[in-house]
Design goal:
Layout lengths: L10 H8 L5 E5 L5 H14 L8 E5 L2 H15 L7 E4 H12 L10 E3 L1 H14 L9 H13 L4 H6 L4 H19 L2 E3 H14 L1 H10 L2 E4 L7 H11 L5 E5 L15 H8 L4 E5 L1 E2 L4 H11 L11 E2 L7 E6 L2 H18 L7 E5 L5 H10 L4 E3 L9 H14 L4 H7 L9 H14 L3 H6 L9 H21 L4 H12 L1 H6 L3 H23 L11 H11 L2 H4 L6 E5 H4 L4 E6 L10 H4 L4 H13 L2 E10 L1 E4 L2 E4 L14 E5 L24 H5 L6 H7 L8 E4 L3 E9 L6 E6 L6 E5 H4 L2 E2 L7
Helix pairs in contact: 1-2, 2-3, 4-9, 5-6, 5-8, 6-8, 9-10, 9-11, 13-28, 14-15, 16-17, 16-20, 16-21, 16-23, 20-21, 21-23
The structure holds a DNA duplex.
Amino acid sequence: MTEQQSLPLNPAQREAVEHPGGPVLVLAGAGSGKTRVLTMRIAHLITTQHVAPQRIFAVTFTNKAAGEMRSRVAQLLGADPRGLWIGTFHSVSARILRREAPLLGFGPNFTIYDSDDSEALVKRLLETRQLSTKVYPPRTVHAVISSAKNRMLTPEELGAQADAPLIKVAGEIYAALGPALKQANAMDFDDLLLHPLTLFREHPERLAYWQDRFQHVLVDEFQDTNAAQYLLVKHLAKRHGNLCVVGDDDQAIYGWRGADVRHMLTFQNDFPGTKLVRLEQNYRSTQIILDAANGIIAENAARLGKTLFTEKKGGERVVLLSTADERDEAEWLANEFARRAADGDAGYEGMAILYRTNSQSRPLEEALRFRGIPYRLIGAISFYERREVKDLLAYLRLIANPADDEAFLRVVNVPRRGIGDASLTVLGRSAGAWQKPLLEAARRASAITELRPNVREALAGVASLLDRLRDAVGQADPATALETILATTGYEQYLADEGSEGLERIENVRELVAGAAAWAEVQDPDAAEGTGSPVERYLTQAALVTPADEARDAGGVTLTTTHMAKGLEWPIVALAGLEDGLFPLGRSTEQPGGVEEERRLCYVGLTRARERLYLSWARTRYRNGRLELAEPSRFLDALPSQVVEERSTTPTWRPQRGMSGAMPPRPPRPRGAAARRLPDVAFPEEVSQDAPRYVKGERVRHRKFGGGIVRGVSGEGRDLRVSVDFDDPDIGTKQLLAAYAGLERDWEGEGA
DNA sequence: ATCCTGCAATTTTTT
DNA sequence: ATTGCAGGAT
């Protein structure tokens, strides 16, 4: 990327950058310099076409990408593009909504609910309706509602197409969710995208304002936009048609989140006269890596079709590695990376290991740590998702927005104030009857005779505590506000009482305060445009950061999911865990189009590599605590044989049939679905050990319960239940889920 | 109300 | 293996 910065634009890139106006669709293959095109286009609009930065609206996939793009534009301009709107769909929408909230019946100080908040609210709504949270898990119900929102369905429409009780219940809850959120002056992630559309529908004059305000609209990663997002930019650009979208249908990997690649096809119909630009020259990878990636993606049928080429001819062959298990895989990769680093091929910061699911990071972390290799994990758990961080932010939220019931419930008894669930249910009923937020109800707790006197007092105390905090915080910056909260609530003492784990949490609290102080310094001065106290703006930002945004720049091997790796690149990349059932993931293969999306994800992974690529799979792997036999991913079959170099960590006792000699090269693997059924290599012992087949009368051993005899077997697969009569009479007979129980054959006990 | 214990469900990807 | 939750004791 950086070395390209100085290169002249190729003709296609230049066309996209200098296109004067009107709709443009840039079909940008992986590594074709689309980020560069976008930044240079923005700079070009500002310098050559004299478009004021504040009249440009640009959407990227992560905040981090937005920040990078902004600073690159600044570099090109020689000055910060003050007023430029650039961010994720969610963050730019939030920015619009902060100004327009009153027209939608919200305060400008609205809270953004994260998925935990939303799920908790769904749970409460289920409970007040006497619906079982066992039968209707709040998580699932919320997922159904969220997907309905992503498809822009109303509660009625969802209810109408309900074919299962769960969907029907979700429809009911969905209908109640909107009013509940409004009451709490809160919006969830989906609302951030939907409310602007409501605004434009109900207040055409506001739409006209924003259409006029933004003369140019640019969208990155267009293939991953959902219906609401596309509609938003369509609205904004409708009048002038100055809409530049950049995307790659082969990299559409968010279908499960409501994204629809077909937007790339309909775009030209929606905007007649669209200029189509194809960026087909790849500046990132070697020819060999591209050959491998092209081989894989070529198996997908529905494609717009691109032919990537590169001037980096040849290159080192792709290593296809087969290992005994996931630890073996991790150790081999760690060893190889250490060697590469020692050879000076790349620093650790130039290497990455990508995987399909976050749970795969463990063994990799261990192997790297064991060798003393520095790494950074771009993980599933964001800093902002830690309990102590959420507690403090909840205080901040409640100061900013007294109607934020989820924040209230989070902090009302933290630190302990003797307010339990039963009391909160009573409080909730009163609040409901009064149509008031919980905090307001707490203030009037003395009027709730149902509550015990000490609870009434405690609740009133919470209300006055927050009043005092609000006064003390005022317009202070977030770091000061957090300090005030800490000092007033005794939260640190509360953590300290938790012991060693609490001390760790105190560290995080310190980090939060420091981070908030740093935030205030870097604050984009234009963000003050619009509305809100510093605390409100800080909260907006905190609600919308993703783990990808947090990745520190401290050097080291990057470990992350393939999803998060989108848009990034490294000289050396390993894609681990390429096994059927894991990548492609078993679940996805059952859905229509699921395998195609997994294949695109795999393609994304491969195309992250500049120089060297490793593809590995483990013949056995622990999944959900159970050892499973694995076969190589079907995607690997599509690799052109001349670009790969097969390696294996096979033990010396490798069976003779089907495989030649001890080490590579391995003969080409059988192709096609039927051939794949054949076991690649037979490992007799492992097969008999690991396939959990239980037979009545057989002896088994449980880690905790000891030995016993199988009395019955029921269910299948994941639900396989085994009834075991344990030797210890105190334990007796138990029903165990075979998948989790970790039963072993009890050979010893046979004679006893 | 809170703490403690033991049981159950859990893992796909993320704004 | 880990985490959250239900139920009982204090």
